[in-house]
Amino acid sequence: MSKKVISNEQLSFDDIGGATGLGPVMRPSPIITVKNLNKSYYNSGQELRVLKGLDLEFQPGEFIAIIGPSGAGKSTLLHILGLLDQPSNGELIFAGTNTKLLNDRERAGLRNEKIGFIFQFYHLLPEFTMLENVLMPQFISQNNFRLLATDRDKASAILGQVGLAERMGHFPNQLSGGEQQRVAIARSLFNDPGVILADEPTGNLDYKTSLEIINILHKINKINGKTLVMVTHNEEYSKKADRIIKLKDGRIVQ
Length: 254
Ligand SMILES: Nc1ncnc2c1ncn2[C@@H]1O[C@H](COP(=O)(O)OP(=O)(O)OP(=O)(O)O)[C@@H](O)[C@H]1O
Ligand SMILES: [Mg+2]
Hints:
Helix content is 32%, strand content 28%. By secondary structure, it is α/β, with parallel strands linked by helices. It has a domain at 61-75 and 109-252: P-loop containing nucleotide triphosphate hydrolases (Rossmann fold). A six-stranded mixed beta sheet has the order 9-10-11-6-12-13, with helices on both faces. The protein has a four-stranded antiparallel beta sheet with strand order 5-4-7-8, covered by helices on one side. Strands 1-2-3 form a three-stranded antiparallel beta sheet, with no helix packed on it. A hairpin with a 2-residue loop joins β4 (32-43) and β5. α6 packs across α7 (177-189) and α7 runs parallel beside α8 (207-222). The longest helix has 16 residues, at 207-222. The protein is globular. The relative contact order is 0.17. The chain binds adenosine-5'-triphosphate and magnesium ion. Adenosine-5'-triphosphate binds at residues 41, 48, 50, 68, 70-76.
């Protein structure tokens, strides 16, 4: 079975033609594979098993919703998928890389280059303008705060995409919750990552604003082709996904 890398993105295709006898049929390799993933926390020597033997595969460009009751392990799973935390056992293969083999610096590099995060409470830095917040992944990857004209143009174009072109010089406390979340979405897109991970991105917003945010995320998935993994408590929004994964007590139940 030959494996051909087709772009600088993490996509690769397995040639399964030989296996089917039908000539070359191309099937995308998963962007994320999780094998027998376990996560435990320890409090005063007591083990709390949070994720219990998960097996998952996400294809490039998929929109996956993760639902389940509070405490089911949804955020824990998202943090592990985003290389913010490590499994206790099992494997996470991200864009063809077995993440177990990475050191901290390589892990941070992969995260900054390939993954965008969106959180319920936006996590914008209050002392920076919207434009600077969007540029934060770039500042981090170049390890300084030098603002190049090309980066500025790129950030303002992305802010335009999320409908905020006019407000670039404003600070987070001068914006509504929905506007702050749109800045966070723009920030998640800056490095053009293949995967966007969103943890209850509408959890802090009213119905109308939530719908606007969901529609922006949906477009980013369908038009920009980003793989989108979204944790939500909202059944209506989860139905927009290609696939729903339900977690309960650290296991996939649906
Ligand atoms: N750092 C930690 N140390 C100890 N226990 C933790 C830690 N982080 C999470 N937990 C526990 O792991 C379990 C799962 O937490 P997690 O945040 O993943 O749930 P969740 O499904 O995202 O819930 P919610 O819908 O309320 O956000 C909970 O019982 C939580 O208390
Ligand atoms: Mg959570």
